[in-house]
Amino acid sequence: MHVIRARNVHQALPEALYQIQRHGVKRDSRNGPVLKFPEPCTIVYEHPCERVVFWPEREANPTFHLLEALWMLAGRNDVQFVASLVPRMATFSDDGQTLNGAYGYRWRHHFRTPEGQVIDQIQTIAQALRLNRNCRRQVLSMWDGGHDLGLQSKDLPCNTHAYFSINDDGLLDMMVCNRSNDLVWGALGANAVHFSVLQEFMASLIGVGVGRYWQTSNNMHLYLEHHEKLMEELSPKAYPSQQYRETCPYESGRVKPSPLVPQGDANAWLREVEMFLDVGVAMGMRDPFVKRVAAPLAEAYALYRSAESPSGLTQALGRVGHCEAEDWRLAAQEWYERRLEKAKAKCADGYEFDPQKALQPGKMS
Predict the structure, then answer these.
(1) What is the crossing angle of helices 121-131 and 192-206, to 10°?
(2) Are residues 133 and 217 in the same domain?
(3) N or C: which terminal CB in the chain sees fewer CB atoms within 10 Å?
(4) Could you tell me the pTM of the whole model?
């Protein structure tokens, strides 16, 4: 077992790239050549709520990561919402309408009792741990052998199970198991956000704090065609230089993670999240995270997607300033600033401004 320990995902990324560069073996895959760890790999996050990646070389799309995580908590599997953020997501649908392996839908709606009743795994697990904090039976399933084995689908769950337990300090620990994980787009990109959001929400439902998060992959790999340059750029910032510590906004105190459920009932918060995803900010919404974090980021992203000139990017950047979560605001501001600089340079060189081509988010963000 190869183990990588880190304070947070921002610090784990260069360390994991350094480790796979040093220990990885070349293999072929259905998506091109990869470097893979020769044994299962576990990443341990000591502070999983510090879930934002700031490396400019990585170009992680913070808005997509956060809104997709909320879409998952809402238990949805529709293509329309995620494809409105990153159009390429539609290519993973088998029928053009839904995503077969959507984690949130599997958490809350996919599985049923023998009598046919839907099992909301999140609520069931939270209730069990509220009643017995020493319980060791709480397994959240994403892989359904009866449905997935042998299925010719574009979208099968990569993360298969998550285990929840309350540790000796009274905090909620989580271990996520993965059958095959892309290191950059998956493990140290989207997954670090999706599952830490799930962990924090689950902790709120139970009434405890957040402990550690283990991400264990049977096959952890890096796509050389897409990420060899990133590996060359970021791996020197890991061991022995440890630049990842010096440049981490969390460790320096420049930003702090914003609580997901700042106050009140976690289920009431989830209902507002579900409403926000359906209709945007509506009259009567009171939750500060929805109104002052998720909404400004979503509104800025809509401005960005519809921009017809660099001034549209300036408007998006201005709207991001209304986001009250320090970490998400900083990452989004820097993301738009890089795109604004690129847009101005292209216009100065005589290129026509086209946000759908030159400025579109990466393939999988």
Answers:
(1) 50
(2) yes
(3) N
(4) 0.94
**Does residue 360 sit within a domain?**
no
Same domain, yes or no: 230 and 270? no
- The strand pairing partners of 171, in sequence order, are 209
The C-alpha atoms of residue 200 and residue 48 are separated, in whole angstroms, by 9
Angle between helices 9-23 and 224-234 (to 10 degrees): 110
Residues that are catalytic: 158
Instruction: Output b/e per residue, 97-124; b: 16+ Cβ within 10 A.
Output: eebbbbbbbbbbbbbeeeeeeeeebbee
Q: Is 239 domain-assigned?
A: yes
Q: What is the distance between the alpha carbons of residues 326 and 250, in angstroms, rounded to a whole number?
A: 10
Task: Name the domain count of the chain.
Answer: 2
Tens-digit pLDDT profile for residues 79-124 = 999 999 999 999 999 999 999 999 999 999 999 999 999 999 999 9
The answer to whether the bond into 240 is cis (omega within 30° of 0) is yes
Q: CA–CA separation, 199 vs 214, rounded Å?
A: 11
Exposed / middle / buried, residue 348 (Cβ in 10 Å: 0-12, 13-18, 19+): exposed
Digit-coded pLDDT (tens) for 211-260 = 999 999 999 999 999 999 999 999 999 977 888 888 899 999 999 998 99
Q: Which two tokens stand for residue 282?
A: 């509506």
